[in-house]
Amino acid sequence: MPLMSGWFREQMDDGITARRIGWLSDYQLLNGCLDQVQARDEGELWLLCDAQTRLSVRIALAESMRRRR
């Protein structure tokens, strides 16, 4: 299973770590977005990266709505 785009995968002794290639805003970090995730296998890692990618997009949308007011 290929890793989601926007993430860099690294094999560790205790599993796999993926780090974002891009950056997160302070607002995204404050509201639960992670810049790295850890998993035991590729399937779990893919799901975590997918969830974090979707979350960061939704939080960025909330951030843009906040700026409009």
Description:
By secondary structure, this protein is α+β, with helices and mostly antiparallel strands. The chain has one domain (7-68). 46% of the residues lie in helices and 23% in strands. It is built from 2 helices and 3 strands, in the order ββαβα. The protein has helices at 26-30, 42-68; strands at residues 7-12, 15-20, 36-39. A 3-stranded antiparallel beta sheet has the order 1-2-3, covered by helices on one side. β1 (7-12) and β2 form a beta hairpin. The termini are far apart.
Summarize the structure.
The protein has two helices and three strands; from the N terminus they run ββαβα. With 69 residues, the protein is of the alpha+beta class. The protein has one domain.
Instruction: Let me know the number of strands.
Output: 3
Strand coverage percent: 15-25%
pLDDT averaged residue by residue = 92
The sequence of SSEs as H and E is: EEHEH
Q: Helix amount, in percent? A: 40-55%
In quaternary terms, these chains amount to single chain
Unreliably modeled segments? none
State the main characteristics:
single chain; three-stranded antiparallel β-sheet; 46% helix; elongated
Topology:
Layout: E1 7-12, E2 15-20, H1 26-30, E3 36-39, H2 42-68
Antiparallel strand pairs: 1-2, 2-3
